[in-house]
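Quarterly update, task 2.4: alpha-D-galactopyranuronic acid-bound model.
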Amino acid sequence: YRYQERSQNDRDAYWNTDEQVNKTERKEYRFTDKYTLQVPGDWNSQAEKFLYYEGIVWYKRSFDFTKSNAANKVYLYFGAVNFDADVYFNGKKLGKHKGGFTAFNFEVPDSYLKPTGNYLVVKVDNTRHKDEVPTVNTDWWNYGGITRDVQLVEVPAAFIQDYSLHIKKGASLKTTKNIPVEGWVQLNDWQTTKEVTVEIPELKIKKAFPVTGDKVAVQFNLPAVQLWSPQTPKLYNIVINTGADKIEDKIGFRTIEVVGRQVLLNGKPLFMRGICTHEEIPQLGRRAYSKQDALQLLGWAKELGCNMVRLAHYPHNENMTRTADSLGILVWSEIPVYWTIDFSSGEVFDKARTQLTEMITRDHNRASIIIWSVGNETPVNPLRLVFMRNLIGAARSLDSTRLVSAALEVNYQPGVNKIDDPLGEYVDIVSFNEYLGWYAGLPDKCRTANWEFAYNKPFFISETGAETLGGFHGDSLTRWSEEYQEWYYREQVAMFKRMPDNFAGLSPWILCDFRSPRRNNQTFQEGWNNKGLIDQQGRKKKAFFVLKEYYDERSRTSNP
Ligand code: ADA
């Protein structure tokens, strides 16, 4: 293994999150000792010396592999690598991918394969750069490595690439009988395929569709169906067959739309009792990547009374969205267009759009996902408006069945908090982050807060929170104490109860404490953002129960 290390103190360099990061002089080291790193996993949490390490790590792994059918194609799939991945198979370059949170794959040519002694080498570089998405400055840890699954996937020469199946837009859900479903099946080689069948055994549906191009249109009616919702997260097995290839999946059927001032799930008003979460397990100080991790985070969200999570600030691993599907938790999924990036650059836009495309491509059949978010707290200015509007347009053209939003900022004016970001015109739900009583003033500020909304649309509070060191106590005026955070949440909840009728829900910041290079207050932070309702040891703070009380009450009065 070979890696580069900063010439100055790693820790100091890591705190320094501005553009100087890339100017820091680096020295190259070659280690004779061998590290065994778990994949999936981040390297930062696997050896103490890697905690602050940012740079290059070379991974190597040997394996045997024999194709089950000589005619098959072989792909090498990566769930995600943070950030740059250069992939070599038996010494030959397969390709390069950029972007730390999305899946990608490369075809492995037959001539590269050997039955024994194959070796895969991946050069991973998590160095932050100004012209990447996200850029250098983020409020989360830059966990490096092959953070998600790696698989060799064998498919027939003519295979099913992707499919989409959803209730037709605008369909009436007055009865659950004869609901029209539409979608498509994407083939890599349509000329050799005559027809595609779509089967939902439980509903006794089996329909055949003729193939006249690579994207086969599919439509049929569901004779009777149990709609997917947080109360009834019903998933159906579906089988898509072309003769040469067959795929199976589990999907739910539901609709999501905005009508006037309301968000409707399956035609009924929805109030989102949400919580934000990073893809991180606090107790272990590492990336959350496994099914157990997803169950832990989403299980806590359920216990809090949530019917929704905001997966901040980048696409999380597939275990999260699939577990959300099966537990009945609605999802906001986001790309890491975060704070200030170069909104004037076409290249940066292309990088953001690529990540948006990769996020939607992986997850467009997950019933749990109802909102695609194109970014967080991007500062209001004309260039950014064009950039973000174009991303919204791209999201809609990739998937017209879901809502599009972005976390906006509040325009604080004397005596009034205005929600008037021009981007509000282009999103389906106007979402914003507010920290009344943490970043300025005390929580009782919420009592006199006046809100002014420029848009006659549903609005959503995508963040609110106060920092607290778990187990640190004082009175409600003691900043960083559990009592302060508890007071903050009480005042916030009282304010939520006075919000107008187009208040569609909230996702406070944040479920768990998480590591952040920006958080360097040595008494209370030491590299952690402690706004979690659950602390670094996995213990619930007092405020958890304040929010839970509100959510439990709301779940009795609002649907679902
Ligand atoms: C911002 C940002 C979050 C989080 C938060 C905080 O609102 O969107 O990522 O860092 O600040 O804790 O201050």
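Highlight for this quarter: The CA atoms of residues 178 and 222 lie 5 Å apart.
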